[in-house]
Amino acid sequence: YDGSLLCLDLGSHEFAWRYEAKGGFFSSPAATKGHVVIGGRDKRVHCLDARSGKLLWAVATGGHVDASPVIAGDRVIAASRDGRLYILALSDGGTIATIDLGSPMSASPAVGGGKVFVATEDGTVAMVR
After folding, report:
1. Are 45 and 78 in contact (CB under 8 A)?
2. What is the DSSP letter of 29?
3. What is the pLDDT of residues 6-53, one digit of tens each?
4. Whole-number Å distance between alpha carbons of 47 and 44
5. Which of 110, 104, 97, 95 is nearest to 30 (CA)?
6. Is the sign of the CA dihedral 17, 19, 25, 31 positive or negative?
7. Is the distance from CB of 108 to CB of 67 less than 8 angstroms?
8. With contact defined as beta carbons under 8 Å apart, do 9 and 18 qualify?
């Protein structure tokens, strides 16, 4: 809750890097060999370089991003408390789609079989193709 995302080098047991954002993070990060993506209380989806912790891109949403984002191939799927599901390009954060589900989301999306499933706070489970 101190507003930091920390990367620990498991070999040296030293912190490799620290990334800070106003408001901090409630979500867990998603990671690939090259990228770390995390939702922020600053209403943005942040993508960092996995080795250096440097910010590669950040995309603003209309609400806190408390749900953990998902990386699916070359896309990032992030649920926001603004009621929208954001499908972003992993490479540069470009918006592929924004889907208004009409209710805040704090649960993380699930991906399977080419579909995205996400629960909204009004009790709906939505499926997006």
Report:
1. yes
2. P
3. 999 999 999 999 999 999 999 999 999 999 999 999 999 999 999 999
4. 10
5. 110
6. negative
7. yes
8. no
Q: What's at 14, amino acid-wise?
A: E
Nearest Cα to Cα of residue 43 among 76, 78, 19, 18:
78
Coil/strand/helix, residue 54: coil
Tokens of 110: 């699930």
Strands 115-119 and 44-49: unpaired
Length of the chain as a residue count: 129
How far does Cα 98 stand from its chain's mean position? 14
User: Which residues are 9's β-sheet partners?
Assistant: 14
| CA 107/CA 67 separation, integer angstroms | 5
- Cross-strand bridge partners of residue 12: none
Secondary structure tally for the chain: helices H, strands E: 0, 13
Tell if the pTM clears 0.90, that is, is over it: yes
Spatial strand order in the sheet of 44-49: 30-31, 35-39, 44-49, 55-60
